[in-house]
Amino acid sequence: MHARSALFDVYGDHLRGRGSQAPVAGLVRLLDPVGIQAPAVRTAISRMVSEGWLEPVRLQAGRGYRATDRTIRWLDDVGARVYRRVRRTWDGTWHLALVEPPTSRPERNRLRADLSFIGYAELTPHSWVSPFARTELDEVLARAGTTARHVWSERIEPSPLDAWDLPELAAAYERFIREAGALLRGLSPDTSDEDAFAARFQMVHEWRKFLFTDPGLPDELLPHDWPGREAAELFTSEADRLKPASERFLAKCLD
Q: 60: which residues sit within 8 A by CB, 6+ positions away?
């Protein structure tokens, strides 16, 4: 686990109810149980400030950092996807974005990664498909300095589902179920708040990785035995169960 991604987890999962801010010393204490040392935390903070994700703030407990408005908007969107708060009903219509590719290779690679992140798959060169017209698409295209033509179709043959690597995604969900189960079996009623925080933090961190691989396809397009459903139920129930202990440890570190 890298310090930078762990800090995004802290700000997104723990600090929204605390003004999206925390003292440096508190951040160091929070990340110690997950194996991230103080120098790595401070280096990651400096990098995130230079990139516009965090801004310095003076707190009662000393020097600290607050998430910028841009970061808060992004983390709120990520949080909704992580905890699957939005469930959409598919109307049977596919959205095709016929993208004008950027001129440089780095820009094309970044655009490809951004389109995949918001749930599109490349059906043919520069033609991207999704069961929904994603609200983030305009921002992604604008950031890449390009545009797209849009097509809506009720019928694409053969099915575009193979544009996503669903077998690999299913295998990843099965690994999550096994590894999260092993992690949780190490806990007991006597587990300390710190250990419960560390276990929950690790589980959330692993779950967030599905943001980059799961396009959020509607249930109608997935097999009846899709392991993502079992994985989501496991994650949601255990994240809720461990939250009170995690919040107590958070308060101990920050208050």
A: none
